[in-house]
Design brief:
- There is one protein chain.
- With 157 residues, the protein is an all-alpha fold.
- It is built from 5 helices and 2 strands, in the order H-H-E-E-H-H-H.
- A two-stranded parallel sheet has the order 1-2.
- Helix 3 crosses helix 5.
- The protein is globular.
Amino acid sequence: MVIRYPGSMHDARIFDNSSMRVRFESGELNGLLLGDSAYPCREYILTPLGNPTNDSQERYNASHIRTRNTVERAFGIWKAKFPCLRGLTNNLRNVSAIIAATATLHNISRANNEPDFDFDDADEPDDSEGHDNVLRDQAENRGGDRFRRIFIERNFS
């Protein structure tokens, strides 16, 4: 959730315009992010393979999907517990306070082993639906594709 971008703007476009992207690209932040198919594959964003051609690639995709589903489910549970998060129309100052407050309350309930709310998976994005279908420059993805190929060889072969 990014309060500067209300509505249905895809996360990939928000990330492209973020200071976090700048920090990853400058080397200030290290690590790997998992993105859906709408994200460009970069040396710090791993995306699923569209057409895996061998067992290593199949294992990579399965692992990628399992991990992303865990994260998506966590956000789904949070939004189910606090339905007000699904369409905040308050002013920006209040929105950030609401997000912070609900995150804190959610973490307190998790720490106290409160039961999770059921939520409808239909509200979560599906990789097969291209979301924003942002066209990516092939040259931008080339380094990411190479990194992903090496990552798969080292970790899933």
